[in-house]
Target: Immunity MXAN-0049 protein domain-containing protein
Amino acid sequence: MRDYYQLMDDSRIAQKVKPQGLRYEDSFTQLPPVSILDVAEHSFNEYTDWLEKPLPMMSQQMKSIIEKYNPRIQWKCVHLIDKRSGSQNVYWVMQIPTLDCLSQDSEFHLNGTVKRLVLDHEKVKPHHFFAIEGILEPYIVVSLDAAESLLRRSYTGFVLQKVEQA
Model:
């Protein structure tokens, strides 16, 4: 049985770049094909390969690996401009196909958020990079194969948390 991991923001990085002008409420379809955004000014901005907020996005290098694991992902380009340093970095916002893969063993809080996430092994086994359908949180899951590809290349900005399977 293949292991799966939740791709999560690495909260240990204090000066992670913060794009301005996007909100979590903005949907992928509302974004233009190419966006230019300012970043919040800090004395030092760290441009990691994975940015979870305000919308999940990744660097060009990370995108080149992930799109091999799920060619159905739709992408929109975002140029992050740091006026202070004059630098520009390209990121990609994604619309990840969702998968109905929750096991009946999953548990939820009264407000509908996930208490215990359990994936149905039979439903996820052919997939490598997907979002979970039917939950409030935007969980993104990667297979062990995809996780190893990301870790081998030393991409930054994320941590992986193993997900239970039934």
User: Anything to note?
Assistant: The longest strand covers residues 74-82. The helical segments are 60-69, 121-124, 144-152.
